[in-house]
Amino acid sequence: MTKIAIICGSNRKQATTAQLCRHLEQVLVNKGCQVIFLDLYSLPLPLYSPDVECDDANLAIFKNGLNEADGIILATPEYHGAPSGVLKNALDYTGFAQFDGKVVLSASSTGGPVGVSSLQQLQTIVRNVHGINCPEWISIGGENRIFTPEGEPANQKTRERVLHTLQYFVKMVETFSSIKQ
């Protein structure tokens, strides 16, 4: 069974990033994947410092989830053209051990039309920890950030785009996972 870790990189209680992540989780579970959901709002991490050895329990959960995953989804709101500070802080704790050879899908939910700047920055981080960027990404913005009571994007084209992107991503994860083993 393919294991996917979803990192929800928002630090806001009712974040559309979290709604998007929960929708991604449901689609992946329906496709037969096992999902490790790492929500940085409910799993806060201490501020990263390379000078301090950190034995935080939340950090152990976070790193173990990534270590177990075959593929990773990084989801963020976009603040001032960049990923959220909580996601960047969490990623500063990671490295090759968590990402090397794993396919990574980047996703954003932004108040503007699209969150391209944050996605490009996430892809740069992924390259630097030897992850494999999925060439597709998910970016929802503006009125496309509305979700139904069932947790799906209200916009049909957004739902279709998410489904297409996740199918592509899962196929990539399965292909690269089989090569790695």
From TrEMBL:
A Pfam family of this chain: FMN_red
InterPro entries found in the cross-reference section: Flavoprotein-like_sf (IPR029039), FMN_Rdtase-like_dom (IPR005025), NAD(P)H-dep_reductase (IPR050712)
All residue ranges annotated as the NADPH-dependent FMN reductase-like domain in the record: 2-141
SUPFAM superfamilies named in the record: Flavoproteins
Sequence similarity: Belongs to the azoreductase type 2 family.
Protein name: NAD(P)H-dependent oxidoreductase
Protein source organism: Paenibacillus baimaensis
